[in-house]
Structure formats: structure tokens, C-alpha cells
Sequence to fold (662 residues):
Amino acid sequence: MSLAEISLGAAVKRQFLFKMKANIDVYSSLMIMQLLAFAISYGDRIRYAVRDEIFLSKVYYYSVDPVIGITIFWGLVTGITVLTKGYTDTDFTFVTNRLSSTLSNILFLAAVGLAGAIMAMLSKNVILLVALFVDKADVLYGSPMTAGDFFLGTAVVFLYVSLACAIGYFIGALVKLNKIFVFLIPALLIGSLMFDAAQDQWPLLFKVYEFYFHEFSLAIFVVKVLASIILCYLASFLILNRMEIRS
Amino acid sequence: MQIAEWLETEILNGHFQSGDKVYSQYQLAEMYNINPATAAKGLNLLAEENILYKRRGLGMFVAENARERIMKKRKTQVLARLVKEVVLEARRLNISDAELIEMIKNAQQEGGEG
Amino acid sequence: MSAIVECHNLTKKYRTKTVLNNFTATIEENTITGLIGRNGAGKTTLLKILTGYLKETSGKVAVFSERPFNSLKVSANSIFVDDQMSYPPALQLYELIEAAARFYPNFNLKLAKGLFDYFSFDPKGYHKRLSKGQKSTFNAIIGIAARCPLTIFDEPTTGMDEGVRKDFYRALLKDYLEFPRTIIISSHHLNEIEDLIEDVLLLKNGRAFLHLPITELKEYAIAFKGRKDEVLRRIGDRDVLHKQYIGADTMYAVVKNDFQEEDLEQARRSGLEISSVRSSDLFVYLTKPAKGGIDDVFGGN
Fold:
């Protein structure tokens, strides 16, 4: 019998398409979380009154930062989820090896991350519509996004979400290496906060946050984030490439 | 080998005549729900005993005198062994030769009627 | 014929336990091999190494001349079917069949659909809602229809009822006749698979204890029954695979069959009953953990 020859590319492509179809529930979890965040954003809109000689104006500030924040968090969780036992075993039911499994996971996370980023950015426009029609705003300061704003915004959110996915994936890989990381990672995070508090210094975690979120040069930001993503996935792959399945 | 015995019986009761093609290992596998390699071993066994012969690319055929060979084989092997066992058992039970022969005759009559 | 699976001194150790211990065997192309052994003999571990799920500790293992661990070639040309097969919970049963068909180039969708309907599966059902036996049946359908050059079934009939078992073995045989491939099927019930398989590979204590055609296994051993002293005299210093006492003075003993026909003839004449041993019984005798049997627990003979 002649053997089937399969290239890595073909295997990754098949697995990616399979994952897109099989993990449709990832989108519903995204949508539910974003809707929730959207409701919080809307409920939390800052509202105060301005009175001048003639008019009493109500002023609302709208922000979709919670939506973006929750999307990033969702990326982290999804990154961890694709390495839980059920998902990995499912991978190996059909044709795969550990490299194609990770590559197709990366592609899958990129695809859902992009969807998350686009939806988060769209919510920005939606909230303006809500302002117009629900809050009956008379004047909208600032204009709805231009296409350029939208693409740039989406790209930045996409990078943040992807970074979260990659970090989540790395955490997932560590947990696969040893279950102790389930406790160790939260313990280290909290421990580091407490240590910094005791030392009365600016917490390390905030420094990490600033490292990524307070970068004003777009180019350097992109390089920082991409490099971190690649590092996380590479480290994960090196761990996962030695792992046994269903042992 | 059950398959070999079954084919022998088919030849004995005339289902296959000399020169007829018998089932292939795959047909036997399908019919008897057995592995084709096991079926092939049954066929080869019969070929070794010259009950079947091979024709290259065509399959297995029933040999000339196959019936006689089978009958002779069964007589010298199977029947002889059965008779020995009967005799041994008769000895254990202290049955006299005359009594044993009588029993065989009775069995023959019953078999003939049935 | 060429070797599809080659193992040489294959060893698998876990922290405290050696599961495979210098296992050496070769499996030829387009044969059906029955991998038998008691629970815990190392069957599943061996099969998972062959499909690249697990990593060998030492020794050599080659499938299609390649080391299976992380081999795409091995993964694309082999399938491992057991009752733990995992599927995405979001997909319906028929979608799973279609997904499998996209992964395996030889997949026979028509056959899969035929079997799917025959066993009355609901195309819109979900795998996790199936009963144990139904799960096994569904997995078996995928395993047969995938038509992988190396098809591995690990205890495939777990939970299936008698009728379904028969249908499964029949379907496997028929499709094998139509589309020959190398099949390994593990079981701890030899009698279930003895007609289906060509070779028997008996695993004991992590080693290949026996590896021979099933037809030879049927002639591997012989049983003597009769007066104890007579039986003992005939079997001499041969290793007794199984012995049993019936009544005061009668003994039944199973030994390896390396007797000349005339020896057997003499034994018969001296009043012993000689019979062949059913391969499933022989399997039990060969794989029993140590010398002795259940009677010894009760301090019997």
C-alpha cells in the first residue's frame, strides 16, 4: 500500500480549518464577554451636568476601554484553554504532530484574536450610535472613526490580544509540564505584588504593564509585542514538543 | 484445520468434482469469517496432500483421485484412531470382543435406518 | 512483504515501573496481528508508542521506517482507535465523520455512512451523549473507514453487545479483504479475535512472549489426561503450562507439544486421553502471573 505523504503546511492547514469549525464556542464566549463589557461601559458612562446662561446640558463620556480590556483577558483565557487536556487529545485523534499542533493553535488564536479585536473596535462605533439614539445626544464631540483610525486601532488591539493569547498559551504549556504551575503562577504574581508593597517600591507587574501599554512609539511597540509573542510561542513549543499525549 | 476438513467433506459429497476450481482464500475468508492467510494454509495443506493442485494465476483445482485420497486418509487416520479409542474404552469396561462387535453391528443398523 | 512495525529492545519506563522491557518484534505489511496479554501487560503502552503518543525510554522503534514520536508521516498513515478517543464537543456525529474524512486520504465516506446508518446513529447526535458501547461502535466505524495503512484497535469492543461485536469483526474482515492493510488489534479475549487474525503476539511482563501464526498457536500445546503417575511419566521434565487434579488420582496436564507421533500413540495405548488445547485456554495458561493458579490461593494441592 502506498503511504500518504503529507507536508507540514498541509497538516497545519487542515488542522486550522478543523479547529475553526470545532471551536465555534470560542466565539460565543467572546460575544458574551464583550456584551457584558459593553453593558458595563455603557452603565459606567461618566455623566455630569453643565449649566451656562441659557442651557442645562448633560455631558456623557463614553469609553469602550472595558470592552478592549475584557477582550484581552478573553485572549489570555483562550490561550490557556487550547492547551487543556480535552483540546490536545482531540488534536491527536486525527493527523498531527506536536509542531503542526502548535502552529495550527497559533493560527487559530490569531484568527479568533483578530475577530475579537475587530469586534472590540466596532463596539466603539456602536456606543456612539447608542449615544445618539438611546441617550438622545444633541451634540457629539469628536467624530466616528475614520477607516484609518479603525484599522490602526484594530491592529493595536489585535497585538494586545495576541500577546495575551501567547502568554496564556505559555501558561498552558507550563501547566502541561507540571500541574504545580496552576498554583505557582498565581502565587508568584501575588507574591511579587506583596514583596514590592513590603519593599515600598513600584510593583514589578506595573512595570511590565507600562512596558507594553505606555509605549508611545508605534514601531517600538510593535517590535516589543511581536518579540514577546514569538518568545512565548517558541518557549511553549519547546516544552510541548517533548510532551506525551494521553499518558 | 477446519477449512481443510470442510473442503474435504465438500469433495467427498460430490459438491466439487475432479478438475473443478475450488474457492480462493479470499472467498473462503469471506464465507467462513476467517483470516485469508488462515484459509490459504488450509488450501496449501490439501495441495501438499495432492488433494488439490495449483494452477498458476488461476487458483486451486480438485486433483484426479482426490476423493479416493481423502477416503484413504480418513480411513487410516481418523477412523483408525476412533476405532482404537473405542477398543480402549471397551477394554476399560471389560467388554468382550464379541459384545463390542455386536454393538458396532447394532450401531450400523441404526445408522442405516437413520 | 516488508516490515511495517519494527521494535528492537523497546523499553518504556515510568518513574517506578517498567511497562515495556526489551520488547522486540516485527510486524509485516498487510497482516492482522492480535496483540494479546492480560490487563497491565503493556499492550496500550506499546500501541501508543507505535502511534507516536508516547515516547520510548530506550531501544529502537520504527513505523514505516520512521520513529513515530512527532512523525507526521506516521500520524497521517496510522490511526489509533480506543474507547478514549476524543472529539470536539461542538461537532455533531456526522460532522466528525466528515472531519475524519478530510484528514485521511483513503477515507471511505460511503462505507462510513453505510455503517453509520446500519448501527442507527443519529447524524445530529453528539459523541458525549452516546453510551459506552455506542462510543466504541462509532470509533470503530472511523477506524475501519479511515483505511489507514496501519490501523490500530485497542480493546475496540469495550461495551459493545454481542451482536455488535460480531458485526464489527465481520465489517473489519470484509473491508480488509477489499482493502488490505496492516491491522493490530488488542484484546484480552483471544477467542473473540482468533478467527480474524493471522498472527498472535503475546505480551507478558512487557516482552514479546510469543509471536507466531494463530494456526501454530492452536498446535502449540497438548493436553494429557489420565492416571497421575502415567501423565507425569509421559510429560517428563517438560514445563507444565497448566495442571489440574480431577478426583483422587486423575490428572490433566498441558505441556508444549514437541512430541513425536509415536510417543503420543504409546501414551494413548497406556490409557491416557490426549487432546488439543483451545487457544483461548492456552492463552490463559501462558499468561498467568506465576506458577500455580487460583487453587493455590486456597492452599489446595
Q: What stands out?
A: The interface with chain A takes residues 29-30, 48, 52-55, 64, 70-73, 75-77, 84-91, 95, 99-100, 102-106, 149, 180-181 of chain C (CB under 8 Å). Chain C has a mean pLDDT of 91.
